[in-house]
Amino acid sequence: MTLSLRPIGEAEWSAWNTVDEEAFGTATPEHRQEIFRRNIEFDRSLGVFDGDLLVGTAATYSFSMTVPGGPIPVGGVTAVGVLPSHRRRGILSSLMTRQLSDLHERGEAVAALYAAEAAIYGRYGYGRAADCMVFRIPTANAAFTRHAPADPALRLRVVRPAEARSTFEKIYESVFERRPGLYARTPARWDGVLTDQESDQGGAGPLRAVVAEDDGGPRGYALFRIKASFDDHDLPTGELRLKELFGLDPAAYALLWRHVLDRDLVSHVLAQSRPSDDPLIHLLAEPRHLHALWLDDLWVRVVDVDRALTARRYSAPVDVVIEVEDTVCPWNARRWRLTADTSGARCAPCDDPADLTLPVSVLGAAYLGGRPLAALLAAGVVRESRAGALRELSTAMSWDPAPWAGLVF
Ligand SMILES: CC(C)(COP(=O)(O)OP(=O)(O)OC[C@H]1O[C@@H](n2cnc3c(N)ncnc32)[C@H](O)[C@@H]1OP(=O)(O)O)[C@@H](O)C(=O)NCCC(=O)NCCS
């Protein structure tokens, strides 16, 4: 088996996509393939060939993703697949190594991905950086606390999603810089959010939406589908499947959730990805009825320690020497002094004794501000040589709100 690895050309798209689908065992409808193709950047989409046969795929999106302090360029890793006939021969490893060295050469200091299986990416230096929650809320038990905000100036407008796209775009533009993990959406990305053919509906009917607004304009939106049903006694058992809900302020946010939870003939709301600090947790009088499930959202890889650590902001002053272990990107494997406060950061190679020793995946896990490091110390993943150094770094790297991307790429 002689393998070669290179970016694919546009003419190879179809074969490349077929390998990806074979690897995932999926069959994507044509219109979704077309949206995927328009999102793909061919010069950043790699193929592994066994002779003439395409056997492996991986691609990178050029994202502008919010990190603590604001958006930076981030490589969004996607479409990682190996033909079943060629698995466990090192093809994934060759793709990951090439992709990370391309990112390094390009000066893109951070990569992020959604993992099909959580066990895959730690070996390549990715750390679990963001969590998400799945909520399944019975609407009969969804009263708010008496502290829920209300603004009499706010009203709801039922809209057709295709016609309200520019409103959604405007609201999303305003919120995406507020939360680490959210990334700017291209027109093709929006096409993916709003595509609404029968095969997109999962048996739950067309996309529906409401906009919260006042005389000054829109302040939030909720996008969802409703799977209507009735039980043997003719009682409504409908399920509302929430796709997105963004509010610019607490009152708009609460009103949108109230609407979603109060839709007639809906017995429960299924929200498949919400941030782990979703304010809804504090709006519900009985949050046990969230029936929350905790899952991983983004995995993050620090590609260049110094560039990545200076690109984000910090919550508190820190001055630590970190010994980074990194066998995949050897340029990171050394001691670095990180000096930062709330106004900026410096990170430079140094030869001083290490305060902390950690695998690069720990920096990825903490990078978006949502992973306290104490648990990693307790798990033995981080070693501390100067007492207090870990708490200092953990406090400085923590950030509000919690990271979450919420839209799989
Ligand atoms: C996951 C996948 C890409 C792995 O490709 P591969 O070429 O077989 O992987 P490699 O041979 O390079 O394996 C490298 C290492 O990862 C490990 N590994 C591979 N797949 C793994 C998995 N699903 N879970 C845990 N470990 C895995 C291998 O055991 C190997 O470990 P080692 O270095 O300790 O020997 C491939 O099996 C696949 O396409 N799966 C279906 C699609 C998918 O899940 N893609 C990931 C999308 S996020």
From TrEMBL:
Stretches assigned to the N-acetyltransferase domain: 3-151
CDD domains recorded: NAT_SF (cd04301)
Sections of the chain in a coiled coil: none
Superkingdom assignment: Bacteria
InterPro entries in alphabetical order: Acetyltransf_17 (IPR041380), Acetyltransferase_Eis (IPR051554), Acyl_CoA_acyltransferase (IPR016181), Eis_dom (IPR025559), GNAT_dom (IPR000182), NAcTrfase_Eis (IPR022902), SCP2_sterol-bd_dom_sf (IPR036527)
Keywords tagged on the record: Acyltransferase, Transferase
Any Pfam family matching the protein: Acetyltransf_9
Gene3D superfamilies: 3.40.630.30, SCP2 sterol-binding domain
Active-site residue list: 121, 409
Amino-acid positions noted as binding acetyl-CoA in the UniProt annotation, renumbered to this chain: 80-82, 88-93
Assembly, per entry: Homohexamer; trimer of dimers.
Family to which this protein belongs: Belongs to the acetyltransferase Eis family.
Database matches in HAMAP family: Eis
PANTHER family linked to this entry: N-ACETYLTRANSFERASE EIS
Record-given protein name: GNAT family N-acetyltransferase
Lineage, broadest ranks: Bacteria, Bacillati, Actinomycetota, Actinomycetes, Streptosporangiales
